[in-house]
Amino acid sequence: MALVLKNLYSFYSYYFHEYEDNRVKGLFLLQSPLPITAILAVYLYFVNGKGQMWMKDRKAFKLNTILYAYNATQVLLNLYMGLRFISYITKFENLFCIPPPWNDFSKTALELRDMSHYYYLVKVLDLLDTVFFILRKKNNQVTFLHIYHHVIMAIGCYWYIKFFSGGGHAYSLGLINSFVHAIMYGYYLLTSLKPEIKESIWWKKYITQLQMVQFTILIIHFGVPIFTNCSFPKGLLIGVVIQNLFMLFLFGDFYYKAYVKKKT
């Protein structure tokens, strides 16, 4: 038993201290995998039954003021990140091959590291979406797609920033996703202010289409360097392509059931 624990500790020490990108040491929620693991464990425990059981005999919370503040904050944060990310687009020689910025302590690389860190923290903040759904008894919106998307984004951001400091080819994900989420939370903000807007089904439908376009662009952007001499790790590129194909399938299935099949 002692030998097993020793080997586990050696594995942990090597990969989470020796192999991490030196430029992310000291950043909040990045030092150890334990805090984000604990956050996600509590999140999954609450959203996969415990929260709904707790709310079963209670009235739905209104949360109007909290939702106004939360959605407005999300719009501002995502717009800020999207604009900051796009301001660096001219810094790259080839947008279809952006190598990892290992040991790059230049001003631009460090600023992109900080923006990637902010993006990761916002993905953790996104987990509150599901909590608000449950507290408001909107349980029909707590789907596998919704939960999976939030969890995989938090995990993916942690691992990528921990070992790649958020730079390199994944720059495009932060850029595109930030603008998409600014639009999405803008819709949430307006519907929380004017619930009758929810009847305008065309708006919600196009937000889903926009998300599907996002995944398609990312599949192309991460797919092209797989077949070139780009120095970005091929395994990571393939993994991101597979993940975005899966998300495109899930969103496509949702879109078909919600807007095509239901209409017919």
TrEMBL record:
State the superkingdom: Eukaryota
Keyword Lipid metabolism assigned to the entry: answer is: yes
Q: Which principal EC class is assigned to this enzyme?
A: transferase
**Gene Ontology terms, MF aspect:** fatty acid elongase activity
Q: InterPro entries, per this entry?
A: ELO_fam
Keyword annotations of the record: Fatty acid biosynthesis, Fatty acid metabolism, Lipid biosynthesis, Lipid metabolism, Membrane, Transferase, Transmembrane, Transmembrane helix
Enzyme Commission no? 2.3.1.199
Q: What is its main location?
A: membrane
Which chain regions cross the lipid bilayer? 26-46, 67-86, 117-135, 142-161, 173-190, 210-229, 235-256
Q: Does the keyword Membrane apply?
A: yes
Family from the record: Belongs to the ELO family.
| Name of the protein in its database record | Elongation of very long chain fatty acids protein
* Organism annotation: Clunio marinus
Q: State the organism's lineage.
A: Eukaryota, Metazoa, Ecdysozoa, Arthropoda, Hexapoda
